[in-house]
## 1
Amino acid sequence: MGIGSNLMVELQEQEIEEQNYQNIVDEAAHYVVNEKMSREEAFAKAKNLHEQRQDKDNYVVIDEETMEVEYLQPELKEPVFQKTKLLEAVSNELFTQFE
């Protein structure tokens, strides 16, 4: 592997980390808006759940092609929510608050 290959891998890893962080922030915003949690409490919950979802002992891969998974614990299932303007605004605030 050349230097360019290593750089591409690093860039992909950085993109994944950024997307994971955005997912945590979006989920935390959902808890703030819809479950009336404090920002700190919501971010901690979303981060904790995200870390648990990453643990291979907590899920089973249903479809190898799409990497669809089923969580063994129902509380790990990601919430489904529409990203409203309010949710997006709270998400943006949380993004900068917890960077």
## 2
Amino acid sequence: MTRRLFLYQGAGRSIREIARMAGMKPSTLHFRLCVKGMSVADAIAMPITPKHRLNPEGRQPRLYEFRGRMLDAKTIATMIGRHRDTVYRRVVGNRVLDIGETPDPFSGFQDAPSTALLITHDGETLPAAAWAKRMGISKETIYSRIAHGWHPVDAITTPPDPRYTMRTIRFRNRRIIRRIASTFRPMTGGHLPTFANPLGTGVGRHVHHLQSGETA
């Protein structure tokens, strides 16, 4: 594969060579030449702005419509005197439901969070728990997605990653096996009861023989 050459100082040179001579990163020069379509002279003359100066205010929070204004979740939580998670549970589309727009008061969200969040999809409005049952997704997954900025419809229609589902199943199975093993261990000396000897074949049997003076 032939490298692409650019005319610089009277000779055809690669991006890496030009970047080294100009004292800039090859990735920056490549972006300006190949992506933005700038000339070599303009790409080199353009000042390099540090990332922290491109957006000195940092990432702006997502805004929601609440009481006729566009506000972030933290501001809304301060106005209503509740935790920010409560605000996320009231999000419907790009709006945050006010007290009078929900079937339950704020205390109801703490007592029964599974029925507090109402989501409208395809003309049907159901609680998050009902959508979770219909879509085969846990309601905890729906709440977590919305808390991380997902649109409510995306939160209920996006299937879970099968890798995490299988990992959860394997973890649950290991926990069940450990519970069964811990139940039989005191009875069998560490082995499952697949033998007729009630003393087992493990530590429990040897302890019995030592106490009675018998040989194993």
